[in-house]
Amino acid sequence: MTTRGPQGPSGSDSSGTSGADARPEPTRGPRLLVDPQAVPSWLAPLVGHLDGVTDVVARRGGTPMRLLSALPGRRQAAVLVLFSGAADPSDPTKPGPDAQVVLTQRAATLRNHSGQVAFPGGSRDEGEDYPVGTALREAAEEAAIDPETVTPLALTGSLAVPPSGFDVVPVISYWDRPHDIRAVDAGETERVARVRLHDLLDPANRFQVRRTVLGGRAYQGPAFGVDGLLVWGFTGGLLAAMTAVAGWDIPWDHDDVRDLAETLDGLEYR
């Protein structure tokens, strides 16, 4: 998720307005952007229960996180949660072997959240359609994703990310015509990847990470370790909430809690 960028390609605001006049209507709760019949069958359980995703993410972190989330002066941002692929031939409500989601890895040289894995996204530019236009623009700028190949399906509610001061709206989308992607700016994005959902859902690749400060626990949450990437924090929590609410989860060991720093040090790209 980035915080800069000139006005670029944008999609349609779900409220039918654009620019500053749209605030804060697009962020008020989950919202479907297409006819339900247009949603791929395996994404229907997710799109139909986005209120559950919002609730799970909002509860994670306990009272301190809720207090931080209530602080004023938060900035608006959006991320593109871009799925592709077909349903499982034996169960149309589950992702098939080719189902994927797009993730990016921030450059290690960045000041904030360096090296972290995220969905493509960033802060709202004045005058653009928000949140859909923001998410599509950032995905084009970060990963060279053509917005014309993407169908935005739905919005979750606005989700607070206290460490960065953002209120983020995830734009759940389907990639109708997948194409090659790349890190557009190496100074900002180290890597972009299309990660198989079957790999993310593999219990062997799921655990929790814990970060401690001065001997006390500062953070603990769900994580995924795939393709040399550690997906944790806001992105890991959102991804875990989506897979759980959609009914895609395979039972995994929630008691497998690993030290964050040690886990990062053990990754192949480090």
Keywords:
270 residues; alpha+beta; Nucleoside Triphosphate Pyrophosphohydrolase; 9-stranded mixed β-sheet; 4-stranded mixed β-sheet; 21% helix; 31% strand; globular
What does this 3D model show about the protein?
With about 270 residues, the protein is α+β, with helices and mostly antiparallel strands. The chain has a domain at about 20-195: Nucleoside Triphosphate Pyrophosphohydrolase (Alpha-Beta Complex), CATH 3.90.79. The protein is about 20% helix and about 30% strand. The protein is built from seven helices and 15 strands. A hairpin with a 2-residue loop joins β3 and β4 (about 90-95). α2 crosses α6 (about 235-245). The two termini are about 20 Å apart. About 45% of the residues are buried. Mean pLDDT is about 85; it is low at about 5-25.
CATH class of the domain at 19-196, named: Alpha Beta
Order of helices and strands: EHHHEEEEEEHEEEEHEEEHEH
Structural class: alpha+beta
Shape: globular
Q: Report the CATH topology name of the domain at 19-196.
A: Nucleoside Triphosphate Pyrophosphohydrolase
Q: Give unreliable regions as ranges.
A: 3-26
Distance separating the two termini: 21 Å
Kindly report the name of the CATH homologous superfamily of the domain at 19-196: Nucleoside Triphosphate Pyrophosphohydrolase
The radius of gyration is 17 Å
Mean pLDDT level? 84
Number of strands: 15
Cofactor: Mn(2+); Mg(2+)
Protein name: Nudix hydrolase domain-containing protein
Keywords: Hydrolase, Magnesium, Manganese, Metal-binding
Biased composition (Low complexity): 1-19
Task: Summarize, please.
With 270 residues, this protein is α+β, with helices and mostly antiparallel strands. Helices cover 21% and strands 31% of the residues. The protein is built from 7 helices and 15 strands.
